[in-house]
Amino acid sequence: MKRIAHLIAGTTIILGIAHVSPAAAVGEMPDKQTCASAKSGIIAGGCIATDREKGNCMACHSFTGIERTRLQAGNIGPPLVAVKARYPSQKRLREQVVDASQFNPHTVMPLFGKYRILTDNEIDLIVQWLYSL
Length: 133
Hints:
Blueprint: E1 2-8, E2 11-17, E3 19-21, E4 24-25, H1 32-37, H2 41-49, H3 83-86, H4 90-98, H5 120-131
Antiparallel strand pairs: 1-2, 3-4
């Protein structure tokens, strides 16, 4: 198991990341070959989240593994680390992805569910992936 330390608000949090396949680890950016064969689960969620025509999460957020890809992370949104600590409930995290404006009316986050940018299934897969971070 690979261990990664993240510094958040002055607190060091150690996250364990289990390897799923040689091409991608849980909570990391999957490569194109892995995405081509992913149909469901965490890896599929990561593929949707990093697809420029779908979630495009890396346009605003950074997350583990992106530094080893062709993508550059944005810095408009918070880093996607320790997601379980920030969102103890997957339901609440899903609500954030569906319509962030209900929690912050001035959000710049796309309203993925409210404006049907992503399907319910795609949102569920992204939430699974986010919860692995």
